[in-house]
Design goal:
Radius of gyration of chain A: 22 Å
Strand content of chain B: under 5%
Structural class of chain A: mainly alpha
Order of helices and strands of chain A: EHHEEEEHHEHHHHHHHHHHHHHHH
Strand order of the largest sheet of chain A: 1-3-2
Distance between the termini of chain A: 37 Å
Shape of chain B: globular
Number of strands of chain A: 6
Largest sheet of chain B: none
Order of helices and strands of chain B: HHHHHHHH
Shape of chain A: globular
Radius of gyration of chain B: 18 Å
Largest interface: A-B, 44 and 45 residues
Oligomer: heterodimer
Helix content of chain B: over 70%
């Protein structure tokens, strides 16, 4: 029996998402269905045999990489499977943690559908059509960000607007680029195409000055939902963008482009870090920190000739786990406290010490604290940036300090005694459903920080999909 | 054929300006319906009618979905506007028209030589004026109308560059999806079936 990989990682999850949507009221069933589907698809992608053949008892399944669709193809090659495994794993853990109050009930089916659409976007040929699939994923994300019956927050309208504006730019850039391959490098059309492409990708990645929706959406929506989107969309867009570098020689060989990417990356890190340091709301600080992470991704692509693409990919799993922990704990704090402003979490650590430690460690992991998951990669990235240009390295380091400073401010607020409470009384008020996932994730972040190669090496196989960029 | 194109172009400019200047949902919806008709006429210059009609049907379906949802709202907000805001939007609309007339010929020569100037101008008018619309409103209905109008402008230009059934199909999905998002946004406030609060949360 012959099947194709897009049936397994695109059509099947879309069908299951539809079933989960019909049963969105049945919380446990919906959580189990979506998270199990995502974990199974992730495991399959992780352990997919090179021969592309499966034998289950008398049934022998042979997989092909392509699926024809309206005259075009979706091709999920074996090289892409480690990344697909990551995004389905991310989907799985987010779905598993989505049973908490405040998370939209349609988050689970929608997140599965979004993962399937983004997977299709990675495989559609010609690849510029991915813009339409990513736009569809963005439209699907709106209901889980904005509760039905409430006026949409201006940040969500801005998110919808800016992300929608990106799609035409990418399609147009794709059309222009197809005609400029034969032109001499000094042709103005090449620069125009690159500018339009850059504008489209900047809108998608919320690069300054198109970033304003990020803190607004983080502030207005549930952190688990926003963090899922701010991990998935920038990660897929970053990988999708590598297609352009891989396909077009004039982009790949343009030294100026790499310098521009490094500079924009550092600007994002420095500005995002500065904004993070001065925030009064943890959710907004989270939003700004995701902008810093986008900056690191851009910096990694800009340092592609020094091995930056390896760091781009190894950052992703560590970032995903840190985001999940941060978002999970923030959702819990919002549930317990009703607010996430620094002024409202005073003394919180005295009542909920495990949640508080988990929150601080999640933030420090994102910030690149030694012994935690993102540290090894960020250290390598900043070192390479410093070697490329000391100014870049210094600004990158300053930007990275932003989240450290915010974490320090948060720590002071968390442990500050509240006058009406007994001053020296500390207690553990968390229940098991809060403690177990937090402690497990903290343990995983520390283990990844100690043994990064053991956990992050598999995803590097994705780079073989970009034969021209493969270091 | 040329007369049809000119008529379609004039209709595009008038409807885009009407959407930008007026805030009354009835005028905006009517203008959007006519705008899709004009965009369809423009697309038929480069595409077979059978393919172009998909854009018309999808556009009208999208308009019907958001307009009827708005119509069913119990408390339709009345936009009380000062003459200065009305004049301001009219003036920025005229500015866009001026910029398109000045910039389109050189854009056609340098970037889109195979595209008819009138088609390019029509697309740019829609894109430019809808961008102004998006920049001057925070209302969900008008935002979605602005985005539909922006995509319509892009589709007019893109139709002259590429004919692909996959792109047509996906753009139809995006337009309908956008209108569904619009419907979602403007569903009356206070709807009891809030999807945020789960049964467990209520207990």
């Amino acid at each position: 029996m012959s099947l194709s990989t897009p049936i397994l990682w695109v059509l099947l999850p879309l069908v299951i998402a539809l079933i989960a949507l019909v049963a969105f009221n049945r919380r446990v069933f919906s959580i189990l269905l979506t998270s199990l589907t995502a974990f199974i698809l992730s495991a399959l992608a992780y352990a997919f045999p090179e021969s592309m053949e499966f034998t289950i008892g008398p049934l022998s399944l042979t997989f092909t990489e392509s699926l024809g669709f309206l005259g075009r193809e979706i091709t999920l090659s074996r090289e892409l499977l480690p990344f697909i495994s990551l995004i389905y794993f991310v989907n799985g853990i987010w779905a598993l943690g989505s049973g908490i109050k405040g998370v939209s009930r349609i988050f689970r089916p929608t997140s599965l559908a979004i993962t399937a659409l983004l997977t299709a976007a990675l495989g559609v040929r010609p690849f510029l059509y991915a813009a339409l699939l990513i736009e569809t994923a963005i439209l699907a994300s709106i209901p889980m960000l904005s509760p039905l019956g409430k006026a949409p927050h201006p940040g969500i309208l801005r998110y919808l607007t800016l992300q929608t504006l990106a799609m035409p730019f990418i399609l147009l850039a794709g059309w222009l680029l197809s005609g400029v391959e034969a032109l001499p490098p000094e042709s103005p059309l090449i620069i125009q195409s690159a500018l339009i492409l850059g504008l489209g990708i900047s809108l998608w990645l919320a690069i300054f000055p198109f970033h304003s929706w990020v803190p607004m959406v983080f502030e207005s929506s549930n952190p688990l939902v926003t963090s899922f989107l701010q991990f998935m969309i920038p990660s897929v867009v970053a990988l999708f963008s590598l297609n352009f570098l891989n396909r077009y020689t004039f982009l790949r060989e343009s030294e100026g482009l790499y310098q521009i990417l490094q500079t924009i990356g550092i600007i994002m890190i420095a500005l995002g870090g500065s904004w993070t340091a001065v925030q009064k709301n943890i959710k907004r600080a989270f939003g700004f920190s995701t902008l810093v992470e986008t900056g690191f991704s851009l910096l990694a692509i800009g340092l592609a000739n020094q091995g930056g693409l390896v760091w781009l990919l190894t950052l992703m799993p560590a970032r995903a786990l840190s985001y999940w922990l941060w978002a999970f704990i923030l959702s819990r704090i919002e549930e317990r406290n009703g607010a996430t402003e620094l002024a409202h979490v005073e003394g919180f650590a005295r009542r909920f010490p495990i949640l508080s430690i988990g929150l601080l460690l999640a933030q420090l992991s994102v910030a690149g604290m030694p012994l935690l998951a993102e540290f090894p990669t960020k250290l390598s990235l900043l070192t390479a940036a410093f070697e490329s240009s000391p100014a870049l390295g210094i600004w990158g380091f300053i930007g990275s300090l932003g989240l450290f400073l915010f974490t320090l401010r948060l720590l002071i607020h968390l442990v500050r005694p509240v006058p009406e409470e007994e001053p020296n009384r500390w207690q553990i008020s968390e229940n098991r459903s809060e403690m177990i996932p937090v402690l497990m994730m903290v343990g995983i972040l520390i283990i990844i920080g100690l043994f990064p190669k053991a956990f992050l090496a598999n995803i590097l196989q994705t780079l073989t999909a970009f034969s021209q960029l493969n270091p | 054929m040329q007369i049809l194109s000119i008529l379609a172009f004039v209709l595009i400019v008038i409807t885009a300006m009407a959407i930008l200047v007026f805030r009354d949902w009835r005028i905006v919806s009517g203008a959007l319906i006519l705008q899709y008709l004009a965009a369809f006429a423009m697309v038929t210059q480069t595409w077979p009618v059978g393919m172009a009609v998909i854009k018309l049907i999808v556009g009208w379906m999208a308009t019907a979905a958001i307009s009827l949802t708005y119509f069913r709202r119990e408390n339709v907000p009345l936009f009380s506007e000062t003459p200065s805001s009305f004049t301001f939007r009219g003036l920025i609309g005229l500015l866009v028209i001026l910029v398109v007339f000045i910039g389109a010929p050189s854009l056609q020569t340098n970037v889109f030589p195979e595209l008819d100037l009138l088609i390019l101008q029509s697309g740019l008018m829609l894109i430019g004026i809808s961008l102004m619309q998006l920049g001057t409103t925070r209302d969900p209905f008008l935002t979605v109308v602005g985005l539909l109008s922006f995509l319509s402008g892009f589709e007019v230009i893109y139709a002259g560059l590429e004919l692909s059934s996959l792109v047509t199909g996906l753009l139809a999905i995006v337009n309908l999806g956008l209108s569904l998002v619009g419907v979602y946004f403007i569903i009356k406030v206070g709807e009891e079936t809030s999807l945020t609060v789960s049964e467990e949360d209520k207990q």
